[in-house]
Design brief:
The chain is of the alpha/beta class and 502 residues long. The protein folds into 2 domains: 407 residues, Amidase signature (AS) enzymes; 73 residues, no CATH class. It contains 15 helices and 13 strands.
C-alpha cells in the first residue's frame, strides 16, 4: 500500500469514527498511552494530511510513553497548547517568523502546573499571528508559521481567532483538551464557531508568565474542551498563584472547579437574558430561543434585559491595548534567550523592522498598522485614565450593575454568529451585532461558551457571564445547561460547506 493510499484509508476510518468519538472524549482514559497514540494518528490523518486543518504546528511523537507513566488528577490526558505559551520542548513563536528561534527551554507556570497534575503536553497549536493584534485587516487563524487554520465543520470557513488552532483541534478530536488565550474573544469565539466549550476565566486565576503578551490588564489563558466538566478539570490543573504575575496573588480560586458540577440545579436561579445582544440574525435568535426554553424547563427564572453598552468602554480599552502591547512585549522579549543567529528581537520596534524586512512572508495578506500605532502610544497619563475608565465602565457600570439591578446571578447571550468564509484577501467578516463578550474581557470577569445548536450544520454557542471570581458558579451553570440542552450537535464534516440537504 502506498503512503498516499494508506493516508486515504486512515482518513476514511477516522471520519467514520468522528461522529461517535470526536465530540465525546470526556471520560478518563482507561489506557492513557493508547488514547495519546490515537490522537497522534488523528493529527497525522486530519492535520498533516486529509483536509490539512493546519491546527497543530508540532506534536510529541513520544506522548504515548509519557501518558503511560503520568500520575495526578489528569491521569495522562493529552493537552495541546497555543503557540504563544512557552513549553520547554519547542520554540514559542506566536505564529511569527520573528520568533521562529524562540526556544527558551522554559515551561510557563501554567504548563508546569499542568504537568504536575498529570497532564501530557501533546503539541503546540496554530493561532492568529501575534494573537490578532498586528492589523485590523487580518484573517483570523492565519500565521506565517502555521498557515491558515480550517474549521473542521466546513474547511472553507474560518476558525476564528486567535485561539483558532486550539478550537479546531478539539472539534476535530486531536487531543483531550487544549489551552487557548484571550484578550477579547480569542477563546470564546473559536470555541463557539467550532462547536466546543471554551472558558475565559477571571483575569488572575491563571498565570500569564512566559506567555507572549498583549495586555497585562486583559490577557488570560483558559481551557478549550468538549465538555464543561473537562474545562473545569483543566482549569483546576493550570490555575495557581505566581509571584511573577502579581494579579494572581489577589485571585479568589477554589481548589476543585469540578466540585458540585454534576449536582448543580438551575431551579429558581435567576438569569438575565441580554435581548439587545442577540443580534440582527433571525437564525441565531431562533437557536437562542431553543436554549432559553431548555433553561426554563430546567427551572431557571429568565429575566429579559435591554441594555446598550457605553461605547467609550471600547475606545478606552483600545488605548489600553496599544499602550500595554508596546510595554509588555518589550518586557517579554527582554526575557528570552539570545537566538543562535544573534538577531534576537528585544522590542516592538524590532518586530516592526523584522516584518518590514520580511514583508513577502509576513505581510502578503495584511500589514502591521496596529503594531505601528502601539509603538507611538506612549502617553502614560492618557493610558492610566483610559484604563481606569474601561475597567469602571465594563465592570462596575455594566456587569456589576446589570447583575445587581435585575437581581440575577448570570447573564446570557449568543456568543457569536456562525463561522464566515475565510478570505485572506479581504480579511474577516464579523457580524458585530451578535454577542456580549467585550465587557467580561475588558473587566476581567469570567465568560463561558457552551454549544447550543447549529445553523446549516454550523455550530453556535451560548455565552454565560458572572461576577468577577464567580468562575466556579459560571461553570456549574454551564454544566447544568449542558444537561438540559435538547439541540443536536453536529460532528465535523471535514469538507467544504454546503447547504443542508445538498
Amino acid at each position: 500500500m502506498t503512503t498516499c493510499t494508506f493516508a486515504r484509508a486512515a482518513l476514511t476510518a477516522l471520519l467514520a469514527f468522528t461522529a461517535t468519538a470526536a465530540l465525546a472524549q470526556t471520560d478518563p482514559p482507561s489506557n492513557p498511552a493508547a488514547a495519546a497514540q490515537s490522537y497522534i494518528e488523528r493529527i497525522r490523518a486530519l492535520d498533516d494530511a486529509g483536509p490539512h486543518l493546519n491546527a497543530v504546528i508540532v506534536y510529541d511523537a513520544d506522548a504515548a510513553a509519557k501518558a503511560a507513566s503520568a500520575t495526578g488528577v489528569l491521569g495522562g490526558r493529552t493537552v495541546l497548547v497555543k503557540d504563544n505559551i512557552e513549553t520547554a520542548e519547542w520554540p514559542t513563536t506566536a505564529g511569527s517568523l520573528a520568533l521562529a528561534q524562540n526556544a527558551t527551554g522554559r515551561d510557563a507556570p501554567l504548563i508546569a502546573n499542568l504537568r504536575a497534575a498529570g497532564g501530557v503536553v501533546l503539541g503546540k497549536t496554530n493561532l492568529s499571528e501575534w494573537a490578532n493584534i498586528r492589523s485590523n485587516q487580518s484573517t483570523s487563524g492565519w500565521s506565517a508559521v502555521g498557515g491558515l487554520v480550517k474549521n473542521p465543520h466546513a474547511i472553507d470557513r474560518n476558525a476564528c481567532g486567535s485561539s483558532s488552532g486550539s478550537g479546531a483541534a478539539i472539534a476535530a478530536g486531536l487531543a483531550w483538551a487544549a489551552i487557548g488565550t484571550e484578550t477579547n474573544g480569542s477563546i470564546t469565539c473559536p470555541a463557539s464557531v467550532s462547536g466546543i466549550v471554551g472558558f475565559k476565566p477571571s483575569v488572575g486565576i491563571v498565570s500569564r508568565t512566559h506567555v507572549v503578551p498583549i495586555s497585562s490588564t486583559q490577557d488570560t489563558a483558559g481551557p478549550m474542551t468538549t465538555s464543561v466538566y473537562d474545562a473545569a478539570l483543566l482549569l483546576t490543573a493550570i490555575a495557581g498563584e505566581d509571584p511573577a504575575d502579581p494579579v494572581t496573588l489577589a485571585a479568589r480560586r477554589v481548589a476543585d472547579y469540578t466540585a458540585g458540577l454534576a449536582d448543580y440545579s438551575l431551579a429558581g436561579v435567576r438569569i438575565g437574558v441580554m435581548r439587545g445582544q442577540v443580534g440582527n440574525r433571525k437564525d441565531v435568535a431562533a437557536v437562542f430561543e431553543t436554549a432559553l426554553a431548555d433553561l426554563t424547563r430546567a427551572g431557571a427564572v429568565l429575566v429579559d434585559i435591554e441594555f446598550q453598552p457605553n461605547r467609550q468602554m471600547n475606545t478606552d480599552s483600545f488605548t489600553v491595548l496599544m499602550f500595554e502591547l508596546r510595554e509588555e512585549m518589550g518586557k517579554y522579549l527582554a526575557s528570552i534567550p539570545e537566538f543562535a543567529s544573534g538577531d534576537t528581537p528585544r522590542s516592538l520596534a524590532d518586530l516592526i523592522a523584522f516584518n518590514t524586512a520580511h514583508a513577502d512572508a509576513e505581510m502578503r495578506w495584511f500589514g502591521q498598522e496596529l503594531f505601528e500605532l502601539a509603538e507611538t502610544t506612549t502617553d502614560r497619563a492618557a493610558y492610566e485614565t483610559a484604563r481606569a475608565n474601561a475597567l469602571r465602565i465594563a465592570g462596575e457600570e455594566t456587569l456589576d450593575t446589570l447583575l445587581a439591578e435585575h437581581d440575577v446571578q448570570f447573564l446570557i447571550a449568543p456568543t457569536r454568529e456562525t463561522a464566515w468564509m475565510s478570505d485572506l484577501v479581504n480579511g474577516d467578516n464579523f457580524n458585530g451585532s451578535v454577542g456580549f463578550g467585550s465587557p467580561a474581557a475588558i473587566a476581567g470577569y469570567p465568560h463561558l461558551t457552551v454549544p447550543m445548536g447549529t445553523i446549516e450544520a454550523m455550530p453556535v454557542g451560548l455565552s454565560i457571564f458572572g461576577a468577577k471570581w464567580a468562575d466556579h458558579e459560571v461553570l456549574k451553570a454551564g454544566a447544568a445547561y449542558e444537561k438540559a440542552r435538547t439541540a443536536k450537535l453536529p460532528a465535523p464534516s471535514f469538507k467544504r460547506w454546503k447547504p443542508a440537504g445538498e
